[in-house]
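Dear Dr. H.,

I hope your travels went smoothly. While you were away I took the liberty of generating a structure for the chain from your last submission, since the lab meeting agenda had it listed for discussion. I wanted you to have the full record in hand beforehand rather than looking at slides cold. The sequence, exactly as received, is reproduced here:
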Amino acid sequence: MREKAQELFNELHDETILDNDKDLRNIMIPYIYGDVYHHGSLDLKLRELILIVVNTTNHTLTALEEHVGAGLKAGLTMIEIKEAIYQCTPYIGLGKVQDALELINEEVPSQATVNEDTRFDKGLETQISIFGEGIKDNHKNAPKELKHIQDYLSAYCFGDFYTRDGLKLQTRELLTFVMLSTLGGCENQLRSHVAGNLAVGNTREVLIETITQCQPYIGFPRTLNAINIINEVAKED
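The corresponding predicted structure, in token form, is as follows:
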């Protein structure tokens, strides 16, 4: 497995990760590029997209730059990479996303599909397609002082971002699961988005494989918390 790990690492990376600490490098390269990358059936492009989102969320810019390069080598387009980073914005905030985008100096065509007149309706429609008709009740039953938050969720989070071209809805929802798992402390939202993932066709197996890919970068506590929620929600489904 060590030989396979080194081959995959060499295929994806030009630079030498942890070259200044060979002891840790000798642990991490076989673990990440041997054990983790060779577990399950996720394709290499999706694995790299997942790690681009993990490192954007963590604001670990050195690792992010490495995985942007690896993603391009794996066959991702710059549109896919930028859309994955854009997708992080409603969940991790503008600052981290802006720093991530500063690593990418390539202009790509806009993938926007909505305008000021359509963003709310299209966003609500997308929410309903993922979470069901009960989303309408969130708007209907929201206290007056909180109605704007429900409006922002529909128009901004789902209207401005989820409706964009460049990534499939199923992929966007999977990446949202990745962000929430990486952030930690978002268990209520993670439950909702595990259910959302199952609704759009990302199976329990896909979610387990995804969180396995995240593990070296988010640690075992957040990994195990995410697995517990996957099992909890999938059992109820």
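Two observations you may find useful: Residues 194 and 230 are 6 Å apart (CA to CA). The longest helix spans residues 204-236.

With kind regards,
E. W.
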